[in-house]
Inverse folding.
């Protein structure tokens, strides 16, 4: 076994999803035991209870599964696991882990579903972005994901946080089948050891939100509402996310952003799809923009302290970063153009879908033959001037980044307050090539509030 992780290899525990609070290993075993469907008719139940066959068929194979559960492994252990278990994984000359995300190299928004349930239905903007899903369809997909995870030799668990502000922090548990996915989320979540000592929790980790990533297994196309073998499902009542049919790691990161975009307005706080940095005097600048418009590049300024590159919340006290890491585009990356990001590509980082010389182990960042959406995930601490804790005061400057693929706007404009409100609500921009499946060139889009 790799060092740096808690492990167990034993039959699954019995019980359903509503079991009492338990230690992480036992809690995950209970989760992987699956849920219990509605009871049968009382007459049938009584017959089964008194049936001779019940004596021989009471047990279930799922509870006999021998499985290794790797909980909160360190980065080095996860790198080793990935190299040992993933055929297309390598160490680059920089020390970063190079992986392929399978058939999908970008997010699949058309396959995203949100469960229409009483607790959240009236608060969701339903339409072509947030597509309704029934409770039974979600539970079928959830059980399918659990079944797949139970067939794996190893399952990886990462416990971390979304949010640097303790007043709005969310406990997140990720259960996945790939070591690379675990390493990715270890980089992207705020890990307990990164928090100030007086904010570290004692006792068992009880998740507020759980991600079940079974992306290596397809969704059943006959389940109600499925349009492909890919399905990314969010249940705000259960506070769970299920991933089937895509191994692109960015789906997990986007799931956290979606959760924050839902919960923070209900708490009267403003979620931001933006990067943020501050100068030596603490003056904060926000850079709003969709994926690929320059948030990460512009925020990684050697003259300013980095707060975060993508997901923030503006509260009555200032801004805080939701994430513990960065997810940078790698096309054309060089030490000359982006020295901070280039330097962050080292041991512990994850390089997705890049082309590498297998002999020299050097990465060609200009080669986009797999996808234009080559990416690197690394912890905030890999940026020399990153701020920790990743919080700041109220912003003094707001920049709205727009990929204007049609030349409608001037290159740069100083906006009046009314213009800022208009452009923030309109959200005119372009989806960039590779960031979503099927997007091969800039496509004009209106993404309200970014």
């Amino acid at each position: 076994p790799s060092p740096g992780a808690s492990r167990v290899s034993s039959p699954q525990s019995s019980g359903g999803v509503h079991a009492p609070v338990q230690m992480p290993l036992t809690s995950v075993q209970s989760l992987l035991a699956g849920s219990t469907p509605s009871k049968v008719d009382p007459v049938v139940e009584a017959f089964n209870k008194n049936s001779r066959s019940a004596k021989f068929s009471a047990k279930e194979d799922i509870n006999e599964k021998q499985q290794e559960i790797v909980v909160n492994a360190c980065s080095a252990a996860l790198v080793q696991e990935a190299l040992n278990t993933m055929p297309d994984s390598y160490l680059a000359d920089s020390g970063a882990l190079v992986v392929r995300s399978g058939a999908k190299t970008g997010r699949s928004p058309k396959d995203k579903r949100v469960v229409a349930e009483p607790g959240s239905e009236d608060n969701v903007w339903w339409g072509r972005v947030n597509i309704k899903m029934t409770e039974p369809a979600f539970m079928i997909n959830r059980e399918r994901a659990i079944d797949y995870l139970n067939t794996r030799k190893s399952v990886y668990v990462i416990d971390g946080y979304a949010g640097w502000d303790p007043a709005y922090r969310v406990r997140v548990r990720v259960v996945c089948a790939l070591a690379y996915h675990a390493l990715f989320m270890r980089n992207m979540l705020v890990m307990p050891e990164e928090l100030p000592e007086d904010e570290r929790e004692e006792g068992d980790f009880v998740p507020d939100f759980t991600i079940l990533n079974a992306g290596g297994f397809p969704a059943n196309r006959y389940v109600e509402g499925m349009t492909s073998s890919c399905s990314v499902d969010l249940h705000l009542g259960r506070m769970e996310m299920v991933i089937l049919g895509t191994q692109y790691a960015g789906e997990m990161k986007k799931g956290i952003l979606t959760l924050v975009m839902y919960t923070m307005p209900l708490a009267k706080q403003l979620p931001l799809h933006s990067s943020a940095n501050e100068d030596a005097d603490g003056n904060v600048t926000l850079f709003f923009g969709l994926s690929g418009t320059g948030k990460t590049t512009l925020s990684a300024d050697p003259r300013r302290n980095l707060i975060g590159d993508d997901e923030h919340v503006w509260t009555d006290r200032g801004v805080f970063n939701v994430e513990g890491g960065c997810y940078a585009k790698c096309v054309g990356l060089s030490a000359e153009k982006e020295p901070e990001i280039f330097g962050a590509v080292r041991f512990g980082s994850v390089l997705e879908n890049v082309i590498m010389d297998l002999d020299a182990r050097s990465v060609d960042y200009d080669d986009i033959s797999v996808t234009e959406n080559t990416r690197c995930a690394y912890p905030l601490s890999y940026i020399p001037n990153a701020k920790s804790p990743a919080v700041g005061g109220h912003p003094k400057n707001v920049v709205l980044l727009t990929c204007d693929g049609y030349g409608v706007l001037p290159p740069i404009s100083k906006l009046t307050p009314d213009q800022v409100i208009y452009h923030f609500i309109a959200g005119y921009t372009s989806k960039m090539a590779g960031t979503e499946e099927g997007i091969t060139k800039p496509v004009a889009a209106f993404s309200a509030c970014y």
